[in-house]
Amino acid sequence: MAHLLPFLVLTLLAATASAHNITDILAANPDYSDFNDFLSQTGLAGDINTRQTITVLVLNNAAFSAVAAKHPLSVVKNLLSLHILLDYFDNTKLHQITNGTTLSTTLYQTTGNANGNVGSVNITDLKGGKVGFGSAAPGSKLDSSYIKSVKSIPYNISVIEISAPIMAPGILAAPPPSADVNITALIEKAGCKTFASLISSNGLIKTFQATADKGLTIFAPNDEAFKAKGVPDLSKLTNAEVVSLLQYHAAAKYLPVGSLKTTKDSINTLASNGAGKFDLTVSVAGDSLTLHTGVDSSRIADTILDSSPLSIYSVDSVLLPQELFAKSPSPAPAPESVSSPTPAPSPVAEAPSPFPASPPAPAGESPAGAPAEAPSSEAERSSSAGKNDGVHVKASAALTVAVSALSAFVISATFM
């Protein structure tokens, strides 16, 4: 058994070394934050991490934002896909290309939207040690050039920075898939008619539809959520407060379930501004996702739509932002039995009358239950923060487990 130990060591180390995480690689340099963020929004980060051999042509914020800011998320995803090569190219290989030029297939070619060589990239070793990049489509120019190597794990993943986006014919002309989506109808059909009515009557449906092209996630409370105790009486809120409350149920970002499960940061909403954070946090328990506001929490009940760049979920509770309800929610709506409001309080009022000797008792009882709600939300936030930890498993953790298992095996083999 002992003669197998070196082989097992090499096998385990090779398996753990092959793991890579593009999000972590790019997070080390803030110059790539926009590129990194869009890889997550489009779901391409997951595609990159599951492939054994890959090269990512990354752009800095200035070069990437100039294009991304002008187009919907579906178009940005196609553009990003053209910058993900299904082969390994590091600094050395780029300068040792056979005959000085080669074509590399990209992730865009696998989408079925690319005709001919539109989904491939031309890589050419130019004179003077420079390397040029461009579309492989006939007549395309080498408008981008190699700047530096960011990270390389031979022959697993290579991340290299290039000077400008690679443009293929027609890649920026794709129509946004959300253009024909009727958001109101989808929400109503999912049992969220009250919420659908509110966003329509307050003019927010136009905002949602316009934002959807760039990326939008909606958390729509179901109809039962608006009937629950503690829900604010919207008639007692100002118009501005109602709008902020509704905006708080949407984020200007495409967040599929996978992204919600792995996010550790707070999620900004459409209500977020300089006057208040209006953000959300997410906790994970198995397949269950819970949104936390600091005042209350709500489970994501169902996925109504998940199609880049738009996600719509139904939630069990109305989300109450701290900025509007930090102390306590607005007075709840009147009881359901409107025809009999007077009999309910009368027994409470008459009870102390036969006992004139004890008037102080009711005065001391009334505040006892009042502050009980405040600590509960704080405790809930504290517990939810811990749930986000450990969602993201990295290669270092896998290596630790592998070495521990190997150590146990060595001890066992020694005694045998």
Please state the structural category.
alpha+beta
CATH architectural type of one domain? Roll
Using the alpha-carbon principal axes, give the shape.
elongated
Low-confidence stretches: 4-17, 334-403, 409-416
> In total, how many beta strands?
14
Task: Assign a percent range to the helix content.
Answer: 25-40%
Number of helical elements: 17
With strands numbered from the N-terminus, the spatial order across the biggest sheet is 2-1-7-6-5-4-3
CATH class designation of one domain: Mainly Beta
> What name goes with the CATH superfamily of one domain?
FAS1 domain
Question: How large, in whole angstroms, is the Cα Rg?
Answer: 28 Å
Largest sheet: 7 strands, mixed
Mean of pLDDT = 79
Protein described:
The chain is of the alpha+beta class and 416 residues long. Among the domains are: 20-160, Roll (FAS1 domain); 181-322, Roll (FAS1 domain), CATH 2.30.180. It contains 17 helices and 14 strands. It has helices at 5-17, 22-27, 33-41, 44-49, 61-68, 73-81, 91-94, 183-189, 193-201, 204-212, 239-247, 257-262, 322-325, 346-350, 360-365, 373-387, 395-415; strands spanning 54-58, 84-85, 101-105, 120-125, 131-135, 144-153, 157-162, 216-221, 250-251, 267-268, 279-285, 288-292, 297-307, 310-315. The strands form two sheets. It has a seven-stranded mixed sheet, with no helix packed on it. The model is unreliable at 4-17, 334-403 and 409-416 (pLDDT under 50).
